[in-house]
Design a protein that fits this description.
Elements: E1 2-8, E2 14-18, E3 21-25, E4 33-41, E5 46-55, H1 80-99, E6 120-128, E7 131-137, E8 144-146, H2 155-170, H3 176-179, E9 183-191, E10 194-201, H4 208-215, E11 220-227, E12 239-245, E13 249-253, E14 256-260, H5 270-283, E15 287-293, H6 299-303, E16 308-315, H7 318-330, E17 336-340, H8 343-349, E18 355-358, H9 367-376, E19 380-385, H10 388-398, E20 402-410, E21 420-427
Parallel strand pairs: 3-5, 10-11, 15-16, 15-18, 16-17, 18-19
Antiparallel strand pairs: 1-2, 1-4, 2-3, 4-5, 6-7, 6-9, 7-8, 9-10, 11-12, 13-14, 19-21, 20-21
Helix pairs in contact: 1-10, 8-9
Length: about 425
C-alpha cells in the first residue's frame, strides 16, 4: 500500500498513519511517499516493511555502508544535514509531548568526524565455516551478522580489530559459538592512539604465545581477560585478569590526566565528550557543594572542581569509583571525593547540595532519585541525557520545583538515531 510518511520515530524509523493509527516503517523518511507492506498489526500501531520509495526525501542518500543488516546505524541512508534535523526534531517532539516544553533549544553541536569517531567496540564472536568472526546480533534476535569493516569505528580501532582477529585465528583460540567454550566477546578501546583489549571468555587459559603476539600488535598497550561462565546482562564476567602491558588507559581533558580501568566507562566519542564536559563546566555556577550522580570515572566532577569548595561523586561500579578517587588524587584535587553505591541513597545523606550533575542511564532517573532531588532542592541541576523521552519525562516530574534554563543537544553518534542533550535547570524561587 502507499503511505505518506509524516514524522520521525524515536529509533530513526519513519511514521505514517493508516486509519488513524501510526505505522512505523524502518528506512522511510518524513515527507516521503512509500510503498509498504504491513508486517505486524497491533491494537494501537502497526509495523510495516519498506518495499519502495515513490517520492524520496531530498536528504535520502545511498548508504555508504553495505552492512546495514547489523542494525548498528539506523541513519546510514540519510545525509548529515538530514540526520541533524532528525535529532533536533526528535528532541523537540519528546520535550513537547512529555514535558509540555516549547521553549528555546540551542542549535545542535555537530560532530566534526561523522565517520571514524567511535573509540570503543564490544563485539560478539562466532565461528562461521570454522573461521572466527566478529559481528553483531540483529536487534531483538540472536541472528549473527559478521562485520568486515565498520565505518564509525576509529581507524586505529578497526585496524587492531582486524589484526587481532587474524592473531586469534593463528593461535586457534576457541569460541563459545562454535566450540562450546572460549571467546564470547572482544572489547577494544582506543584513547590517544593507545589500544586496550579485553577478551571475554569462559574459564580457560590463553597461552603465553598468544598474549605476546597480541601485545606486539602496533599501539596495543593493555591486555585483559574477563571470565564469564554464565549468561548475564553485563558483558563482563565477575573475574578480570590482567594479562600484560599497562593496567590503565590514559586520557587527557584540558589539564587533567585520567586513568581508566577495563570496567570503567567513558563516552564513546572522545572529541564530542570533551565539548559536552566543557559546556557543563561553563554552565555551572560557582558553589560550595557540588554532587555528581552516576559519575563514572569522575571526568565531569574533576573538570568542574575549580567551581566548588567540595565535590562529591556517586557511582555504582567499583572500578570506576577506584579510578575516580585515584584520578582526583593524581590531579591534586583533595576536595573531590567519590563513593560507591546507590545514587538516591547516598545523595540523600549529603547535608547540603548547591548544584547537582546527573548523567543517568537511558532509563533516566529512577523514582527514589527524583524524590531525593525534590527533597534536597539544589539551586542548579545539570542533566546529561542520552534519551530524549526519559529526559522529558524526568523534566515533567521536576517542574514543580524547577524551570528549564538552557538546552543544548550534541550529535555524539553520527549515522545513528541517538542524540545527547545537556539541560540546565534552576530552582524556582519560593513564593511568599
Amino acid at each position: 500500500m502507499k503511505l505518506k510518511i509524516k514524522k520521525w520515530g524515536i529509533n530513526g524509523e519513519g511514521i505514517g498513519y493508516k486509519d488513524g493509527k501510526p505505522v512505523f516503517v524502518k528506512g522511510a523518511l518524513p515527507g516521503e511517499v512509500a510503498d509498504v507492506k504491513i508486517e505486524k498489526r497491533g491494537d494501537h500501531y502497526s509495523i510495516a516493511h519498506l518495499i519502495n520509495v515513490i517520492e524520496p526525501n531530498s536528504h535520502r542518500r545511498f548508504p555508504p555502508c553495505s552492512q546495514t543488516e547489523c542494525d548498528g546505524c539506523a541513519l546510514m541512508h540519510v545525509n548529515y544535514k538530514g540526520q541533524c534535523q532528525m535529532k533536533t526534531a526528535i528532541l523537540k517532539q519528546a520535550l513537547a509531548k512529555y514535558a509540555d516544553y516549547h521553549g528555546k533549544i540551542e542549535p545542535l553541536v555537530k560532530n566534526d568526524s561523522v565517520f571514524a569517531y567511535r573509540n570503543s567496540c564490544k563485539l560478539p564472536v562466532k565461528k562461521i565455516l570454522g573461521q572466527l568472526q566478529t559481528g553483531m546480533f540483529k536487534t531483538g534476535s540472536q541472528q549473527f551478522y559478521p562485520i568486515e569493516r565498520c565505518l564509525v569505528h576509529e581507524k586505529e580501532l578497526e585496524r587492531v580489530r582486524t589484526e587481532l582477529l587474524f592473531c586469534l585465528r593463528k593461535h586457534n583460540i576457541p569460541c563459545l559459538e562454535g566450540d562450546g567454550y572460549g571467546l564470547r566477546h572482544i572489547v577494544i578501546k582506543e584513547f590517544e592512539k593507545q589500544i586496550q583489549i579485553i577478551l571475554v571468555t569462559t574459564s580457560m587459559t590463553i597461552e603465553d604465545s598468544a598474549v605476546r603476539d597480541i601485545l606486539n600488535l602496533e599501539n596495543v598497550c593493555s591486555l585483559w581477560q574477563s571470565i564469564k561462565d554464565h549468561d548475564a546482562v553485563d558483558i563482563f564476567g565477575p573475574e578480570m585478569h590482567f594479562l600484560g602491558g599497562q593496567r590503565n588507559m590514559i586520557l587527557h581533558i584540558e589539564n587533567l590526566q585520567l586513568e581508566l580501568l577495563p570496567r570503567s566507562f567513558f563516552q564513546l566519542n572522545t572529541l564530542q565528550a570533551k565539548k559536552l564536559y566543557l559546556t557543563i563546566k561553563d554552565w555551572l555556577e560557582p558553589c560550595d557543594s557540588l554532587v555528581e550522580a552516576y559519575s563514572g570515572i569522575g571526568a565531569m566532577s574533576l573538570l568542574c572542581a575549580s567551581k566548588a569548595k567540595q565535590v562529591y561523586g556517586i557511582e555504582w561500579i567499583d572500578d570506576a569509583v577506584s579510578n575516580a578517587n585515584a584520578n582526583a588524587k593524581a590531579n591534586g584535587l583533595d576536595h573531590v571525593h567519590f563513593k560507591q553505591g546507590d545514587a538516591a541513597k547516598l545523595f540523600s545523606k549529603i547535608k547540603k547540595v548547591d548544584a547537582l550533575i546527573v548523567d543517568p542511564p537511558r532509563s533516566g532517573l529512577d523514582r527514589p532519585m527524583k524524590q531525593a532531588i525534590l527533597e534536597k532542592k539544589p539551586h542548579q541541576i545539570l542533566y546529561v541525557s542520552c534519551n530524549p523521552s526519559t529526559l522529558a519525562k524526568d523534566l515533567a516530574d521536576l517542574r514543580t520545583d524547577y524551570k528549564v534554563d538552557k538546552i543544548q543537544p550534541f550529535d555524539m553518534f553520527s549515522q545513528t538515531q541517538h542524540v545527547e542533550t545537556v539541560v540546565s535547570l534552576r530552582k524556582i524561587a519560593s513564593k511568599k
